[in-house]
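Project standup — Tuesday

K.O.: blocked on the structure for the chain from last sprint. Re-posting the sequence here as requested.
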Amino acid sequence: MKTRKTVWKAAAIQGKKWLSDLLADEKKRVNLLLCMGVMGLLLLAVSEWIPKKEQAVVQSTPTKEAVASQQDYAQQLEYRLEELIAQIEGAGNVQVMVTLRQGQEVVYATDEETSSQGDTSVQHVLLAEDGLVETYQMPQVLGVAVVCEGGDTAAVQNRISALVEALTGVGANHITVAKMASTQ
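H.V.: unblocked you, prediction finished:
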């Protein structure tokens, strides 16, 4: 009974012998190089027939559903930020307002064709007379306002700004932290 190691060793020896026999004969070497060249050219030719996939970002006019969805997204983001900021030491009671730069974007699937002259045409992929939706991109955050009881302390402002910046991706110049007015 042969072990795997001996089987692999025997196969490696046979492979080396076959390769050395192939490379020893000049005619076989030339034929091998020609075959490899033809295969490379065939692969290049076939790659031209494979369609390339491009993305096009198209933004349509906002509908009532899109506006409602955008408002829901902003409210959800505000709620989650309030919950996290309230956990920061010294923040106290917190209220957050988020403004969004633009509505939700829809990315439609496209098909790109290149002619033999090098001209490129891009067409949207249609599915039952509608564009095939590839992805939805959520609206970008424009700015964040945070009002909290500890908003007059520089250390609390820095911690809140760093947290909001990390979670939303907006720069510190688009984040405002202020002290909440007393209710008495």
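K.O.: great, moving the ticket to review. The radius of gyration is 31 Å. The CA atoms of residues 66 and 104 lie 7 Å apart.
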